[in-house]
Design a protein that fits this description.
mainly alpha, 3 helices, 69% helix, 0% strand, elongated
C-alpha cells in the first residue's frame, strides 16, 4: 500500500471516529430549545454545520435510545 493511500485511510477513519464522538453534543444541542424528531435532529445538525457533519437516522435513533436509558432525554408518541 502506498503512503498516500494509507494516509487517506487513516484520515478517513479518524474523521468517522471524531464525528461519532460529536453525536452527543449535536443531538443535545438540537434538543436544547424544543423537542424534535430524529429527522428534525438530522436536519438541524446538517443546517447548523452547513452540511459538514451529517448522521444517518439510525445513528440518531441509537443515540436517543442510549440517552433515554440514562434519563438524558424523554420521548412522546
Amino acid at each position: 500500500m502506498n503512503n498516500t493511500k494509507y494516509t487517506e485511510q487513516i484520515l478517513s477513519s479518524w474523521e468517522q471516529t471524531f464525528q461519532k464522538g460529536q453525536l452527543t453534543f449535536w443531538v443535545l444541542l438540537s434538543l436544547k430549545d424544543s423537542p424534535k424528531s430524529a429527522e428534525e435532529i438530522r436536519t438541524f445538525i446538517r443546517s447548523f454545520t452547513q452540511d459538514v457533519i451529517s448522521y444517518d437516522e439510525q445513528s440518531i435513533y441509537r443515540a436517543l435510545r442510549k440517552y433515554y436509558k440514562v434519563e438524558l432525554v424523554n420521548f412522546e408518541m
